[in-house]
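Students often ask why we bother predicting the structure of a whole assembly rather than each chain alone. The short answer is interfaces. A chain on its own may look different once its partners are present, and contacts between molecules only exist in the joint model. In this exercise we take two input lines together and write out one structure for the complete complex. Read the inputs first and try to guess which parts will touch.
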Amino acid sequence: MPSFAEVVDTHKAMVFSIGWHFLRDRVAAEELAQDVFLQLYRNWAGMKSGNHIAFWLRKVTSHRAIDLMRRRKSRPEMSLEETAEPTVLERMQDSLLASYLERMVASLPEKQRMAIVLRYQEDMNPDEIAKVLGMNVSSVKTLISRGLELLRAKTSRTLGADHRISHDTV
Amino acid sequence: MTPFEEELKKALARREPPAGFTARVLAGASQYDRERSAAAGGFLQKLRSWRLVPVLAALLVMTGGIAYQEHEHEARGQAAKQQLLLAMHIAGSKLHDAQLAVREVEQ
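Now the answer. The structure tokens for the assembled complex follow.
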């Protein structure tokens, strides 16, 4: 079993990034990550192995991030359709497709967003995601495929056919 | 994985948290330990003070018992003294009667 400090060092990027990609708020993501690690510290006696710790961290971070987003009623979630099209200037600022995609992912509905984050940030398969989110596998597969459809549609419409990721390639 | 998914994966790559993150988490863990120790200390103090209650109760019972025994002993002593005085009084009067009878015989 690794020490608590080693676990924090090993998994801090994972925990912080799940919060960051889900919340798109650096301060909130850091607070969330700190709270998750302190909860781990309080439950340290129940940890059985390194794999168990990694699974526990993903599960607790995901659920806490979703709960936090639900409590933030003052900041209503934007739908993909409501998300403002980036201006030319924004497109210049968001010159990298990556930052544009990050914004689009953040506009997905909660469960869909978390499923996409766990699938593409953590490289988890639908079975693993289903265990973390407490859902059945077919629902997770549906969430991911619908999320991808929305993201593709929005990206191709916004960035146009001249972009290197055209509709044909996806 | 499609090219779009590859791009998504790049977009959602892990990021490092702000500098000093580990130190802040470890400081929070130490703070938790201190609070837990303080809470446990307070509980032990309470436990110690509550543990004194049966000891004090036992002392009270023992003291009461001894006082009661002493009182009983004293009461028995008083009764015995009264009985002795009565017996001496009876014996004295009998002796007086006997002395009077002897004098009458002598005269």
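Check your guess against this: Residues 119 and 125 of chain A are 6 Å apart (CA to CA).
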